[in-house]
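Working notes for the structural subgroup meeting. M.R. asked for a predicted model of this chain before we commit to crystallization trials. I am recording the input and output together here so anyone reviewing the notebook later can reproduce the run.

Input as submitted:
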Amino acid sequence: IIETGTAGGSRALFLASICDLLGHGRVISVGTDRGARPEHPRISVVQRSPHEDAAVRGVRELTGDESHAMVILGSDVRAPRIVQEFAALAPFVPVGSYAIVENTIVNGRPVWPGYGPGPTEALRRILSVNGGFVVDTSWEKHGLTFNPGGFLRRTS
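Returned structure, recorded in token form:
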């Protein structure tokens, strides 16, 4: 799992604990947060902005050339940054796996109406320029998500 925007490591630690329960997997946390992060044997950190070439190289060093990752985009929730992060990290997602755009509920969907262009707007842009991903609403069947429309399954 490659995740961005960990802000202290709580998401990374949660994901690592799920990997523990499954008995496999690891988490690569990408971001510039300088705060203390929890240590866990399944967590690796790339201390760079996720959209930078250096971050992509750091992730590639950890995944190898044949990445089979899921990407969770949860850092800065402004549309341009999310589009940049997606462009940088989507190549790590194989066909059948997912890129998840978090927090698609902001900018009045239904919360924080004055937020401005955020994850939903980024999602629209991503889908308009990248035909290799489709929205998979099957993960929303119980309506318990902050990411409606944000589960993108790679199809090609």
